[in-house]
Amino acid sequence: MRASLAAWALVLPSLLLLVAFTHWPAVETLWHSLHATPRGNRPAPFVGLDNYRALLDDPVFFRALWNNTIYAAVTIPASVVLALVMALAVNRAMPGRALLRMAYFLPTMLPMIAVANIWLFFYTPDYGLFDQVLSLFGFGRHNWLGDAATALPAMIAVAVWKEAGFFMIFYLAALQTMPPDLHEAASLDGTPRIMFFRRVTLPLLMPTTLFVLVNAVVNAFRMIDHVVVMTRGGPDNATTLLLYYIYETGFRFWDTATAATLTVVLLAILAALAVLQFGVFGRRVHYR
Questions:
Q1: Taking the model in full, what pTM does it have?
Q2: Which of 111, 147, 224, 227 is least enclosed, having the fewest CB within 10 Å?
């Protein structure tokens, strides 16, 4: 009994913070999504599911949802796979390994606003790095962020460049905790490297992969800094993501009811993806 009370006493501060800053705001947001936007001193009337029905007639919402789906579908596997490849590369003994690790991790250390401004220069028509390099091969100018066909892929490239180095650190730490006896036994048995990677390395990395995937999914749906600095959702909502649409709706147009409704939809998407991740990958994760 005393041990149980001591355990709850240790957990209670974190539990209170979790409830106060996570669960209670989520419940409040759900409640506000069932009301209209308050005007002046008039209280917000209860409208039920009208705000959710209005989203079904909102083309910008569906465009933002589609953009975010593409953004997540590309950035998540690309950043995770690239992080694993980089971790495998710098885990071996090689000259300049420390410098290479630092080069891979450097984008993560830069503030997101600074990263957006750096890539904004890269994408500048005529004077940007990409147009300058492509001009050497006879290609003309291109407005990377002003063209609806290339604006979202350009944003995806920035996200992958920034996040892969961060995820690499976790994979590198996991690789360095693997017992060296496994590699020695595989070498004595003549096991091919690809077979060893599939049968031994990947299963042992599954806990790290699950952790990285959860973070990658959250990052894919909370991206707003780069959008604000680089495109502001344009051109023609080609780079409008869900969180940026929530920001614009709530703080630019002051439609708090619609913003709350969009937030509930975003939370529902994240909850569904979390259940899917832990349901599918959780069965393949072994911590011992």
A1: 0.91
A2: 111
